[in-house]
Write a structure and sequence with these properties.
Layout lengths: L21 E8 L5 H11 L5 H13 L15 H6 L6 E6 L4 E6 L7 H8 L4 E7 L6 H12 L4 E7 L8 H17 L5 E5 L23 H7 L13 E2 L2 E3 L11 E5 L4 E3 L3 E5 L3 E10 L2 E3 L1 E3 L3 E6 L10 E4 L6 E11 L10 E6 L2 E15 L4 E4 L9 E13 L11 E5 L6 E11 L10 H4 L4
Parallel strand pairs: 1-3, 1-4, 4-5, 5-6
Antiparallel strand pairs: 2-3, 7-16, 8-9, 9-15, 10-14, 11-12, 11-16, 12-13, 12-15, 17-21, 17-23, 18-19, 18-22, 19-20, 19-21, 22-23
Length: 453
């Protein structure tokens, strides 16, 4: 277990970034572990609830015959959620303290809503996994820890909830924290911070608990406010997905050609040699513009416009990267995916693959295995992936894609599979380490011919 590390103010340049003004985090846990109550308590005690919102929750609580305010109703916004007393959809909430701004995602605990947890945690920099102190680590706890590990969530908080119902006993907390930390370490989770809490009573959520003087660590909010979640972008290879090509064609700028987008990782500098993928054409960065201001250097996640020294054929979806350290462009890749749609994913399925700003046609070549999250075993050749399944998928694309391993980059290592018929999102994917090498032209199969591969 590790404790919180105090954050330091971000410097003006990329070399000394160690903290962030915005933290995205998600909550997860088994049914009735108190996720929504924790979020409600966090909002209430940090003075982030408007008066009319609190009045509405008080009224709803009285209508349900409850003597005290049910803070879970602050996040359980769907009618079905309030009626059943469970979380179904991902509830996003935005709040701020004097030290940091937050975007939180309260995700469901039911097994059948694992895909919702994947959605909520996919952009999270921290995950809070709740455990009922009376039940300890259960199957769904392990499942959520595995999902957080697969999604490379950098920081994990184990919130041992309902300590009031366990007599605020330190041995209960120590046993659960030890068991979870050992399991998380086996998954490769880099950091776990364990905090004993009572979301209902407010112990160690925003204010320290007088009933647990044996605990000397941070409260949940103190940890959220201080955990460093931004690292030096110079550590990462630069990636710039082109979102829009600017060609004003005006008398003042008759020949201007700029490439607008957001730097997804790394640092770009004027004079740097770059390659445009998947074409492989090379050039040099001639200028960087941000909101009308010329820059010599820019870094993630800045939105900028690049100009190149050469007039190249570049369009939306192309990826600009330094010549040294560019990803390998290939037409075949293997990814770990979570299937999101009620319609199963099967080998031979024709899909659209969205990677960064590029969307190409693709075919599911095979599904080698399905992951059993209970014990992390692999079920070979499952034949299909149904909603909430996590498995390995091999894809062949109509055009080469420069995809990084998800372990190296959450932005350019992630992808979506989309139904070409109705545009529905089918599957969320994380590119694996093994990439197929780009192959020369070959005659398409009868199945591929209709897709102009």
């Amino acid at each position: 277990m590790t404790g919180a590390t105090a954050s330091t103010p971000a410097a003006a340049g990329p070399e000394s970034l160690s903290s962030t003004a915005l933290l995205r985090f998600a909550t997860a846990g088994s049914v009735d572990d108190g996720k929504s109550t924790l979020v409600g308590r966090l909002l209430h005690d940090s003075k982030s609830v408007l008066a009319d919102q609190l009045e509405a929750v008080e009224l709803a609580s009285r209508n349900r015959g409850q003597e005290s305010v049910d803070l879970a109703l602050l996040t359980d916004g769907l009618r079905a959620e309030r009626e059943q007393g469970i979380t179904i959809d991902v509830a996003y909430r935005y709040f701020a303290t004097a030290r940091r701004r937050f975007i939180l995602a309260d995700t469901p605990g039911h097994v059948q809503y694992t895909r919702n947890m994947v959605t909520g945690a996919s952009t999270a920099e921290l995950a809070i996994i709740l455990v009922d102190a009376r039940n300890g680590v259960v199957e769904q706890t392990r499942r959520h820890a595995a999902v957080a590990a697969l999604l490379r969530v950098p920081h994990v908080v184990l919130a041992v909830n309902k300590m009031d119902l366990a007599g605020y006993a330190e041995p209960v907390f120590a046993r659960i924290a030890g068991e979870f930390t050992a399991y998380a370490a086996s998954l490769g989770v880099p950091e776990v911070t364990a905090i004993p809490i009572s979301a209902l009573a407010g112990d160690n959520v925003v204010t320290p608990s007088a009933a647990m003087d044996w605990y000397g660590g941070p409260t949940v909010l103190e940890h959220l406010e201080s955990v460093p979640v931004t690292h030096d972008p110079t550590d990462d290879p630069a990636r710039f997905p082109v979102q829009y090509v600017i060609r004003p064609g005006t008398p003042e700028h008759p020949d201007f050609r700029g490439y607008a987008g957001q730097i997804s990782s790394g640092v770009l500098r004027v004079g740097q040699r770059v390659v445009v993928q998947p074409s492989g054409l090379t050039s040099r960065i001639e200028g960087i513009d941000a909101l009308g201001q010329s820059l010599d250097v820019a870094w993630a996640p800045q939105s900028v416009t690049l100009t190149l020294a050469d007039d190249l054929d570049i369009s939306r979806g192309d990826l600009i990267a330094p010549v040294e350290g560019a990803a390998t462009a290939a037409r075949e890749l293997t990814a770990t995916v979570c299937h999101l749609h009620d319609r199963p994913l099967t080998p031979g399925a024709r899909v659209l693959l969205k990677h960064a700003t590029r969307t190409v046609k693709a075919i599911v070549k095979e599904i080698p295995s399905r992951l059993t999250l209970d014990d992390l075993s692999h079920h070979p050749d499952p034949g299909e992936l149904v909603a909430n399944d996590i498995g390995r998928v091999t894809l062949r694309t109509s055009e080469p894609l420069a995809v990084d391993a998800y372990a190296d980059s959450r932005s350019t290592g992630s992808l979506l599979l989309i139904d070409p018929a109705d545009g529905a999102t089918l599957t969320a994917g994380m590119a694996g380490e093994a990439f197929g090498k780009a192959k020369g032209p070959s005659a398409p199969s009868a199945e591929d011919a209709a897709w102009d591969f």
